[in-house]
Protein 1
Amino acid sequence: MNDAGRRHIGTAERRHRLALRQRLAGAARAGSPEEIADSLVALHGTDPAAVHLAVGARLADATKTVGETERALYEDGALVRMHGMRHTVFVFPTGLTAVVHASTGRTVAARERARLLKNMAAAGAPDAAWLTEVEESALAALARRGQATAAELARDEPRLKEQYVYAAGKSYEGVHTVSTQLLRVLGVEGKVVRGRPLGSWTSSQFRWAPAPDHPELDPGEAQAELLRRWLTACGPATEDDLKWWTGWRVTEVRRALTAIGAEAVSLDEGTGYVVSGDTGPVAGPAEPWAALLPALDPTAMGWQQRDWYLAPELRPMLFDRSGNVGPTVWWNGRVVGGWAQRADGEIVWRILDDEGLGREAESAIAAEAERLASWVGTARITPRFRTPLERELSA
């Protein structure tokens, strides 16, 4: 206990929790993509390949990664790719759609629609009534088709092809197409989601699909539920972690913490929070473990304060300038290096932090690289946001 009477959860125990609750230790691996998504709450979905790679790292039978993930996303509808926290695309369990939309989507959606109308008005484009007509027509066409690309929808609703100049006269002036901007807003509003892509599982050429039906929830209740789920998977976490991950104001974070009866604990960084009843000690996995996680993996990107699993001196090589993490190599709960795929398909990796590593660690990491290569097969993976080490290794 610390001076405030709170239990202290140190770095070693936080890594134990990460190994088990993030499904990374060998014995903690899951049997399906649905189980993984439910455990982690959300998988980063901006990079299509990253979703499959994140699942493959946690699936007991990695050979089923592509087929099972595509089944869950595009056949059974158990998972859905949609906008969520911080205006980022994630893959969620479909049952969480209403919670995500009410807790984070509505506020962002109102802002994004207002911005679109403002930009169109500044460019002399048609007004809000015109945009509403186009929107209703496009949604009707999407309902008829089931799923479609923006180009396919534009054949049904030609006004989607109209363009307008954004920020005329500015250094960042550009030409925007109505379809691109409108579908983006409809995604944030929870009216459309990303469907099956054209091409393979690594393709970023997505079709659009109608969003699954969901009830409209009270925002405060939805925020409490989302925070409860995330803290169960990722606790303990600080207020700064929670504010960063959700994109909420600090007042919203504190209100949700109170609503779920979160318990305060002591961390090396200060005060942290866990869900009620989760202050007890957590033993680590029975066996040491290694993992190769993809760019934008939800574990690597899960917390704003990362020193307990990622040494600050490693960040320049593993992150891009916008703060997106690249492919990482893990050993027993901490990042020790990075990996990449070369043009011939070889998975290569490099240790950047060898403190405490020995022959066992190197053998385990090499085995994970072979495991990854075995199910990736002939696919070629280039992260959407490239980092210095990934570029160097892939070359």
Protein 2
Amino acid sequence: MAIYLFETRSLRDRLSPLTENKTILELLAGGISILDAWTFNNQDQGTVTFSVITEDFLSDVSGEDRCIERGDYLVFAGLRPVALNTLFDAKQGSGISLGAGLITRQNDKEDQAEQQVLAVRLKEKLAISDIRNAVINQADPNKALFTLLAPQKIRWTEAREVRQVFHPEDLLHFAGADIRSAIDFQLAKGGPFLDAKAIEASGNKIRGSHEVVIEQSAEVHFAIFNTENGPIYIGKNARVMEGCLIRGPLFLGDNSTLKMGTKLYGPVVTGSDVVLGGEIKNCIFHKGTNKGHDGYLGDSIIGAFCNFGAGSGGSNVKNTAGMVRVYDAALQDYRSVGQKFGALMGDYTRIGVGTQLTTGSNIGLCCNIFGLEMPPRHVRSFLWGTGHNLTDYQIEKAVVHIENWLRFKLSSLDKREIQILNHIFDQTGRRR
């Protein structure tokens, strides 16, 4: 069985800058990728392959002659990862029939153009290039997709209860539940894990009814774990230094480090090779990112291989306690996200020593921001400078600097990643 998860232009824009150089499936769901979460939730369905239909420069299914075959599934990538069978009417059981489709209404309107395609099992094969054109290049991707599927006479059923990721803050909203699922994913691998006696033998203290799951290869000493609000997971070869105060839920990825005296208020999620320090609340950090020094950061989603200098951080509440507005690339305007939100940050961006981000910041990828003057709320990708005095960060220089930072993580950019960055830079029209 093959499942093709399709992105739309509006979904990618709504999640920007997190998805500027990657698909939504590469983002973290509780500590594992969204793609891994889909795979884990469908492991009982036999052999299942997953592919993503997205923009050409990111696609893993490129090629004009490629098709989705009869009996395969087309699923909206903005759906929360679930067992595919649970999406459809229970009376269909595990035998989801050919031509079964699931939709949901947008804005409570009756017009079919206002209905969103969630999932469909194809009766006949479809060219991937045609699907990509419909969902990426058309102004109304759902209307285009309905038109493309019309000859198959799909039997549409309206979904009653489905959860989707519409905006970046949804990733934070679901983080606690996602951590629980990600821990189950790790437990299914079989460990080995430290038992409670071994954990406490290293001077650690545990309080609460949820579990503390620590990989046997991790180093954890003289920390306090409070699981009253959710479980805690410490990954392979991770380090939790002395004096850390941790309130779950937490997923600390492989080879990641909590420096001495770190204070975490969950849910907090990290990928692998992340370094955290200071005071952190309700945040997601993707692979290789450092926020290793004193300073506060809350209600934020940070991309991969970012760096926060000593004393840097950001506000997540306005001094007026008013509603926070964050720039939304799909609207090309600011959108209200509630009373608490810190920052969105794209991959490979660095914040200098002492630099503070304002409430509701949206900082693009490959930025280098420094100095004591607070930068604007919205900083587009490939900018360099201090405060509002920002200038173009040329791609050749940006790549050299990224490579310098990646050496700290014993990593480097591969050819495809450099091609993606060059493509994004060229789209801005700023190459000299």
Protein 3
Amino acid sequence: MSSDDQYDVIVIGAGAVGENLADRTVQGGLRTLLIEHELVGGECSYWACMPSKALLRSAAALNAARAVGGAAEAISGDRVDVAAVLARRDSFAAHWDDSGQVRWVEQAGIDLARGHARLDGARTVVITDAEGATRRVTARHAVAVCTGSGASIPPIEGLVEAEPWTSREVTSAKEVPGSLAIIGGGVVAVEMATAYTALGCSVTVIARGRLLAALEDFAGDAVAQRLQESGARVLTHTGTTRVERDATGRVRMSLAGCDTIEADEVVVATGRTPRTADVGVDTLGLDHLTPGDALPVDDTMLVTGTDWLYAAGDATMRAPLTHQGKYQARAAGDAISARAAGRPIDDAPWGTHVATADHRAVPQVCFSSPEVASVGLTADQAAEAGIPTRVVDYALGRVAGVSVHRDGAEGQARLVVDAERDVIVGFTVVGDEVAELLHAATVTIVGEVPIARLWHAVPAYPTASEVWLRLLEALGRPS
């Protein structure tokens, strides 16, 4: 094997996670190969975070202006300009051209190979390009699987045959259909329901439970109410039993309870599945690694039962969010570099080479209307974990900085406090334009800042951050 086929590190998957991991190992002095069979930049850049937020932003800005007297009177027209929204979305997805990302990879000193990568035993990867030609490469130190995830398709009769949209199609659609039925009640479902309703589409959301079921109850309730006020139909605690597309192209859906929904397109937003089915874990002789399943890892992102195979991001399903995957990638890249150089590994909680926050401080924003921002545990999750808690809520409309920012402002913030340790373990806020409140909560939870110390973190007046003072007042001043 030539030196051209031997690397220190091989990274499978050139999405945001793979890029970050490869960048970290190159900075650690390791010759690194990054392999991608689609677009360099991955799901987030072209079919998820960036295009979805671009679709949502225009309507959010318009709604914000309409909620301020003096600005509202200057607005003409009832809706956003659909063509302009789609064009702006296209620009943020780089028109699905990855040349800019490729230039970054090259400038970072990372080697890039195009093709499908598959493990073929320890430290060996076979790359098959678009023409079917193969290349075998080996890694001296590590191989990292950063292949992300794909949309899960539930086993509903006729659904596959109806050719449903997934997150990819709904974020990259070139035209807005007249009507859309969305199966699911999570973040993708409510964000796309928010976006397409604002684009003039007739939207129906069908959820087995309540909306945003993993978050505090009041979050999903507020989003459902706003969707309905905007003209969407929200059906909760019901399931889809059958789907069919007729000769005209329309989709007909049968629901539990014999209701029927018709739409131009159906979107499946019922979760994600790790893309590990054809990564080649079956060639490693390890019974606990099953193709299609999440890869089990320790906190340095080393795959269980190996001393060379790593995984980060959705391939592990530890915390399937882009920012958490990038965090894992940084930890993994640093751990690989340290081990390759024979340096000690700092794998204690909150250590240099670990991803600890995935267990207790995962921040997430749902860019629905209203926005939902959360980090840490919900009140129910804390109770289930056996943590003695104090839970306090505060209405955002009573915060001066919020009320002056938006006429008739509404929303709610919640703190979940570990009553024994006197630190915050959970924070949720629901309201318009509240996402930027989240990082303060993340820092507070990660830093385990005592409540007594937080009293001395003075929020500027009048800003939305004053909600922190009001929440502390609701907890009560320490004696």
Protein 4
Amino acid sequence: MTQAVEYDVVVLGAGPVGENVADRTRAAGLSTAVVESELLGGDCSYWACMPSKALLRPVIARADARRLPGLSGAVRGPLDTKAVLARRDEQASNWNDDGQLAWLDSIGARVYRGKGALHGPRKVVVYGPEGEHHSLTARHAVVVSTGSRAVLPDIPGLAGAGAWTSREATSAREAPGRLAIVGGGVVGVEMATAWQALGSQVTMLVRGGGLLPRMEPFVGEHVAESLKEAGVTIRTDTDVTAVERPGGSGPVTLVLAGGERVEADEVLFATGRAPRTDTIGLETVGLEPGSWLKVDDSCRVEGTQWLYAVGDVNRRALLTHQGKYQARIAGDVIAARAQHVPLLESDRWGAHCATADHAAVPQVVFTDPEAAAVGLSLAEAEQAGHRVRAVDHDLASVAGAGLYAENYRGHARMVVDLDREILLGVTFVGAGVGELLHSATIAVAGEVSVDRLWHAVPSFPTISEVWLRLLETYRAG
């Protein structure tokens, strides 16, 4: 049976990004349908942000406690892995999306379960789980928010080896005895932190020369030092050339360039992402299936008047919070255009403009120590042609850091545009620095001048006093 229905807006994908689009368009009075083939709430709720941070939080809390005299002796011994995994399950709603469905119902969005695909301009067909078809027409906009998936490299033997991706790593039912992690990015370091603390013997195999290569070099150095102290083996400049695991179960062997072999009980490949756009009918509207979708600052797909892409699929920033920011932009723009409200196209900081995607993307890596950054690194700023100066400070010398933990280790850097005397980027690494990041994001996004930042007085004794130390160092020249 085929049902034909018309809505103002049709959203493909009901992760947090798609849900936010629906929230904004419904708040503006537009009828909105949401299509989802898996769990409402998407990867972030069930296989990424929420379960991964639930695994990591006990690890970080124990590490902090062990660095405090008077408390360290009370937290000896291993973590209760069973209890940690049980709390992880709760934070992932036990992989049940009833709560998400209730929320979407509460805002008046119509939910269609099944695989949705474009069938020409403004047309979406949903192939339901019981064989039913729904033909949806969007009066104003179709929004693609189908996210991204892990990419496995083309290595002999890998396809049938039952390797973990980020999904399996965050939802595993027990800690493997030996875990090999291929990749040194965010997923790799966070999962190494979590599973080592939960009882696995972890070996990281990293193709490049260090960890977290997209951040300032000192970040990866601090994280690597801490992981090694915790017992993780890190091998850099290492290529995996083959994987052996007959039958897809049992121990797995990784063959390295040069012939060396590394054995493990499970292997996680954290080696990149691809857009989930290969089966959504892009070819019916003249776009390449499986491609990243290029958008303007209103998140409208270039060359179209009705198609929008938000979140991972547009490749601007593969971060949930940034996708939700884009969703708010797109939702407001769709509503304004539907209601013929003129947009101030010249206002780069207007509600219709995803400017922060260019200037102020924040990210926290929840390792021990934490890493937090917003805007450009020194290398990125120089490559972009800015005349800049990096201002560095040892976080351990800040009074608040010494109170936070004994033998505190950390580092802070701000990248100053010397022509405009504003911050282009800020990076912190150290325990608890994730909570410093929003102040840095405001400084970068708001283009607050260095002279004005001088009058933003940090409380004493907190780690945020590093702001004063950075500004003093800059003024000292």
